[in-house]
Each structure stands twice: as C-alpha cells, then as structure tokens.
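[09:14] KT: can someone run the structure on this one? pasting the chain below
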Amino acid sequence: MTTTLMFTPAQQDAISELGQPLQLIACAGSGKTEVLAQRIANILAQPEVRPANVIAFTFTEKAAAELKERIHRTVTAAIPDIVGLAEMYVGTMHGYCLDMLQTYIPETFKYSVLTDITQQLFIDRESNRSGLTSCTKTVGGSVQTLRRYTDTRYYKAALSVLQEDAVKFSRVPEAVTAALGMYRDLLHQRSYFDYTSMMVDAVDFLERSQSAGTLGTAEQALRDHVANDVKYVIVDEYQDVNPIQERLVQHLVHFGANLCVVGDDDQTIYQWRGSEVANIITFAGRYAGVRTIELADNFRSSEGIVKLGRSVAERLDSAERLTKKMLYASHQKWERGDMLALQFEDSREEAEWIADRIAELQGMPFVDRPGGEPRGLSWSDCAVLFRSVRDADELVAELKRREIPFIIKGLARLFDAPEIVACAGLFRYMMGEISRPELRQLWDAARLVPASENWTSAVRVLDVGADFTASERWGVYNIQRLFLRFLEALDLREDTIPGGARRRELVMFQLGKFSQVISDFETIHFSSRPQSKYQAFVGFLTFQAPGVYEESDEDAGYVAPDAVVISTVHRSKGLQWPAVFVPYMRANRFPMKAPGGTQTIPHIVPLEAVPNGDRYKTNRSDETRLFYVAITRAQKYLYVTYAPDMSNKLYKKPSDFYLHCTASVWMSTTDEGLPDVARLEPTPKHETPNIAISFSELKYLIECPYQFKLRFMYGFNPPIHEALGYGKGLHDVLAEMHKRALAGDVPTKADIDSLVDRHLHTPYAYPALRDQLRASAVKAIDRYFDRHGDDLTRTIHSEKVIEVEISPGVTVNGRIDLIKSLETGETAIVDFKSTEDSQAQAVTKDQLSIYALGYQQLTGDNADRIQILNLDDHGKSTNDPVNAALVSAIKAKVDAVAVDIRANQFGCGHDHSSESAYDDLVWLTKGGSS
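[09:31] RB: done, structure tokens below
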C-alpha cells in the first residue's frame, strides 16, 4: 500500500515493516498515532488479512478512540470496500480480557466490574470476608493486622501486586496469601471482576488453552481463535506494561503472530503501580529477530523545549534507558523569552504571576499546523501542571479572584467544591450533624438556591427521608432518589441555577459528579440497613471519599470548555498545550520525597518477594521521567517556577529540576515580557472530538439529546432499581443457548433451571422479589423454547459486536442480540425485550435500523428483516422489513446530533409527561428547554 502523506524515512520504515517483530521507540511528539494507523492500513491491504486478525492495545480508552478514528479514516480511504472493521480489537488490555472471558465462559456473563472506587467500598464493607482485617503488615519488626478504612488503600494495592507481578509467594507471609484467597473467593461469590482479576483470569485461561493436555470446549475454542485468527498484535505505551500484561502479550503471539510494540522508556511514569521499564529496554533481547526503529523527530515543540527535554532525559543512568536523541522537527520557532525559569518570594506571588501571564497570553498569535493561519491564544491553550494538585490552592484562589475560568482534570479536590460541600450537607443534616439554618448557609454559600425559593418544601423531603421507621423495605430508602427529589422540590435545574450560562453548566457538572458518588456508594451499600447506610454514607463523604476520588480520573463530556487546565503531570500524558506552566518546583515536592508511614511494599508484601520491587517506591529516576513528560507537553511557551515555603524547612530549597532549567541556555531567568505584537481575537483551538455512542446511549440521542447530556456528560445517574439484573440475565441465558447451538450443542427445556441459575443475578432484590424474578425468568425461557426453540439451529451470530461509522469520528457500537436465518430464506436481526414496557418499539426499530447498517459494514451482506422478540407473556413482538429509507434517516439524525454535541448544543423538544413514573431524571430535562 502506498501513502499520500509525507512521512520521514523512519516513519515509512515503521509503516512498511510487517514481517519482523518491531520495536518502535517513539519520542514525545513523534506522530506515532498516525504511523500506527498507516501501519494497520498496510496490514489490512495484505492478501487474506482480515480486520479480525489484528489486535491493537492502547493505554486508555481515549487513546483507543483516537487511534480507532485514524484507522477508520486511513483504511476506508485506502480500501473503500473493506468490511469487518468492528472485528478488529482496538482498546485497553483490561477491556480485551473482559471480552475474552465473557465470550468463552458463560459463568462470567453476569459478572460486573468494580472500579477502583467501588472496589475500595466493597473491601471496606466486607472487611472480614474480603481478607482486609486478617491481612498483616510488618512495621518496625512488629506484626499487626490491617485496619478498616485506614489501611484499605494499601491492601488494595497489595492485592494488585500479588496478582499482577511475578511474586515469590514463598517469601510472602501466610496471612497475606490467605487474605488474597479470601478476597478472590468473595469476588466470585458476588459475581464481580476488578481490574486485576479480569486480567488474571484471562491470562490463566489463555495459559490453560496453550499448555493443558486435555482441553475443555471453551479452552479449545480459545486456542483455535488465537492460533487461527490472531495474526498481528500491536501494543502502544509499551513502557507502561506490567508483568501480567506482558504475559498476556506473550500468549497472544504464542502461535507466531507478528508483534509490534511502541513506547518511550523516558516516559515510563507508572512504575509505582507496577509497570516495568525493563520490558521495553530488554525487548530486543527477549524476542528473536527484532527490528528497532527510532521515531526521534518531535513535530510538537520548539527547538528550545526539545533540547531542554532531551537534557532532562539524559540525566537518567544510561543503564536505565535506551540510547536515543529526540530531534527538533516542528514548525514552532523558539524565541528568547518563550521559556522562563523564575523564582518568587512565596507561593502567592508565584500564583499572581502565573495568572498575570495567562491573561497576557490571551490573543497572542499562534499557528497550530505548518502553513496554517494564526489564531489568538485562549484560556484552554494554557495548562498548569503540578506534581500533586494539592499544591494548587494559591493558584485556584487567584484564578477565582480574577474570574479566570479553569478546570481541574479528574476528580481531585472534588470535595472542596462549595457545591459538593452543600450536597454532602444534605445528608449531614439528615443524620443530625448540622441544623437547618447551617444547611441553608451551605447552600447559600454555594449559590444553589433558585429564585423560586422552594427551600421549605425541599427540606421536607429530607425530613421525610430521615424517618427510617416508615417502611420495612430497605430499598425504599434510596439515596439517589432522595437526592433527585430534593433537587426537584427545590426546582434546581440548569435553567434555574443562579448565574450565567458558563456557571450553570459547571454547577451541573458538579451535581452530576455527586450523583455518580452516590451511585458508587449504593452499588455496594444498597442493601444495608437504612439508617446505617445513611450514616455510612456521611462517614464516607467526610473521611474516605476525598482521598479515594483524588486517585480517580474522570473527565466527562465530549466538549472541553474554554478554560485553563489544572492537572497533575500524570494526567497530562498524551496531551499538549501551546503554553505550559510547571510551578511549585520545591525540593522534596518535585522530585517528590518518598512517603513515610505504612506502604504496600515492604510492609505488606516483602521487598524480597517482588522482582525489582524498588520500582514501586518513589525514586529519582521515575521523578526525572515525570519531569520530562511535563516539559514535553509544551509546544512554544514553558514556564518553570519556584517559591520557597519558609514555614517548612523541607520545602525551602529549589528543586534540582528547577536548577537544571536555570542552567539551560534556552531558558531565561528574568521575565522580559511577551513580544510586542498585535493581538488577535482569543479563539480556542477547534478540535473535532471522537464521539463513540453505545446503542443504549443512542436511545437518548434519538429521543432527547438533553437527557443524553444529563446522563452521559453531566453524569447524573438514575436510582438503582431492585429488579436490576433481570433483563440482562434473560439476555445472557439466550446468548448461551444460541452460542451452544452454534457449537452443535443445542440446549433443551431440561436445561432451563440450570441456565437461569447460572445467569440470573439480581443483587439488589429482596428475597421475595428475587424468588419472583427467578420464576418469571423460568417462564420466559420456557415460552421462548415453545415459540422459537426450533430456530436455535438457525443461529448465524449471537451477541455479535458491531460498530457503525455514521460519519468521520462518529461511531455507534454495541452487540446485536441475535442474527438468524428464517425458514423463508431471509436473514433477520433480532432484539430481545425482557418486558413489555422496557422501551418504546419505535425507538427499538430506530436502533435496529442502525444494527442493520452495522451488519452490512461488518459482513458486506444486507439483512432482510428486523425483529423484536418480547419475552414478556403480554408483550408484542414485531417482524418488519429493513427499510433503507429509515436507515438513511436515522443515520442522518445521529450525524446531526453529533454535530450538536461537538457544538455543546443539546435541545429538549421531547414530551416527557408520560415518563415521570419510571424515569427519575425526566424533570431535569426542563432545564434543556430554554
């Protein structure tokens, strides 16, 4: 395949090399994403290669979305008639492992995934059964058991180390090993995966399929898949791969698949959570015939930034890095004064200068691309990168004082926000910790009380909710529902929030985040005794949540606001800005001093039990790599600043990294001001975000785009329903039935009880409801056998993954429940509905029309019929033709809505009056009507 774009010789070599194992050393700003997309297009142009033969791993879902869009754009331009792109896996290793398990092992269909936050809540709630309080730590020669809440984060980290690293268990205390076993058993009892267990189970499954003497049906199917289908494996950010992920890669190339790894050892910044820089450094010695290609050209940054970054990387011991030199290849020109290393009297003066410079940069001419027209820099072109955002207090206060818009990436400092403090106050009031006047004071301070002044009615909702004797059903005391009812009684929605449009949107983001906090908590605590649950929630908000969420990363939404970005350096990885500030460059802060107190290694897991266990500790090499990442985020302007903390001798001196900058010829240590040039109108960079919509989300886009915004951008969650899991359980039963039929093992009615018991998982149902749901499920499957049992052998695909590209950068993805052949010789796309009122048929038909388009893109064939099979005894099923005009109309509608999403425009022209009985978010949609 020939390409029309201009590539360097090294990039072209990387695109063309398909035979040997390939190691791409990609320096910062080297254009690796485009190279990977072109290489994959080249792979797919080879004879007899299908998209299903390619696996491409990325470190984050965001990186996967970007790579996927580039692949679609490149491949469809080069091979217009290609089909089956949805069968090429582009995503994270965790996602791949989950897909693998839930494709081949029916027992795992019902498993849900614990996030880092819900995992911690789970361990604390089940502190005895999870092994937490029986696990030991050894501190100063004294053996102690771990304490609930206090030691949970260290126990959670120990669980990861013990399973993801090559641990020598003979050197691990028996109590620690036993605790791990208890935790693993509890996960399976409760039908959970966490991020570690899904990797462990998947890799163990792969190992059995490749080494066991006798293979079961599932192992044989997986072995055949890896041997026959996996031909090319690509691993991006390879420097951040940990030992179990390396084992996954090894098993996927076990039968000779071509392996390409891409990374930069100088950007290894996650060793503290298990990544192993030795993987990339020793790669060429561990695989035969490796070709190493260095992508050294930096197309992002000015020559000064490139030279400074290179000098920082060269501070590393030569034994800890691959020999390379990043080269300047950008259109950005270095000018004296673009890069400053400045010292201030104190952190307040430092913050004032940063705010001044951000304001002065507004309108400065900046050219994004070679040959492009200049635009005026805006707020979102400036990023302030901290080693820890806990150091950002002075800057946050200064930006607020000047009313300079800013966002803090992730959820760090979430619980400092006045809106969140006010929301937490609701539950403190219910528990008697604060009075009604004190609650009102919190809400007034947060400017959350609308002009309509329904405060008395809203507080009455809390008073009624705090009567824990009103009902014997624990599910009635739903925290999420009470929160939403309070907001509704107060008449607080987007159009009634005091202030302008920008503030109203930011407040909605905060309220949505609090709704997500409630969902996280109730996912684990839903079935707790009501008063104890509310008390535990207040305790969680007060003592655990601020620390738990600080480690989380959640940047909701497809549209980045025009605001200054405050971020940790870790969260800046993969991003770039015209102007980057790196403040707080104090000794013992950056590079950070190793923390004291309890640590996972060596206090829970002995250092000698973990190969290269020192990498889990804060060390100078990793801090140097982190500073290298910070510097290389900048395109033109770089400001590294220091101010001593005279109240703490630990932080009085400047960082070695700051001193390194002052010694660079490219940096100035005096601010001579910005060039005296004509300013342009500040214009944020217009980037077209990639929009990936699931089929469940598509429902809201079709019906009411504003409800899509409420749910998937602001983050509002509906209350947990006690019957949650019933519909999925039925779908999972049918998925196993049809998959077995495909394999020649056709189930019968005799299998109904075992099928239902294997798949029906209703963790929030009270006992009587659980029995009722099981009985209903058995009847529904029995009816399915009566009506459609003879069709099992007509199965073409079950739970088939599809992905529809509506337009460049806009994809709809999901799974088709069933594709089958009819007695008439036609092909039907089938969607199962568990209950009569689960969704309007018109909406389902719209979704199925997109399914039909996805099936065509997947196989090149056209489906003839779309069927809705209602599993409810009273539900109506339908059988309609695939309507080409409807397919085109729905595609056009989704494309139009995607344009609105990118413009941050969400209207609500839908009549929701009939939905309030079952949709707790309906009243909020009034906020999108204005």
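[09:33] KT: thanks! The CA atoms of residues 299 and 567 lie 23 Å apart.
[09:34] RB: yep, looked fine to me
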